[in-house]
């Protein structure tokens, strides 16, 4: 709403407004202090199993066999190439990658079990 206010750190919408000493997002209901909005660091870097920084759209390979739980089950083999990953902050447990794995469909992966293809 106001051009001078930062976007919401939770949902990244730009409809924030001031309410007393707080900034409020009407989209998700998140409230935060004006002071923390200025000092909030950039999103944490997500690194693969060997320390390479990952980004949305990267191509990665699986570094160890992964047992898939749920319907059908199966095993994602070492060396499986996964294209077009998407980094997420709200994954199940400590899963921080959302990707389409060939032969399995959409899965969430941990960054510690993938290696970026350089």
TrEMBL record:
Instruction: Please give the Gene3D superfamilies that the UniProt record associates with this protein.
Output: 2.20.25.10, SH3 Domains
**InterPro entries, A to Z:** YjdM, YjdM_C, YjdM_N
Q: Where do the Protein YjdM N-terminal domain residues begin and end?
A: 5-33
Q: Which Pfam families match?
A: YjdM (PF03831), Zn_Ribbon_YjdM (PF08274)
Q: Where is the Protein YjdM C-terminal domain?
A: 46-117
Question: What's the family?
Answer: Belongs to the YjdM family.
- The molecule here is called Alkylphosphonate utilization protein
UniProt organism field: Arthrobacter hankyongi
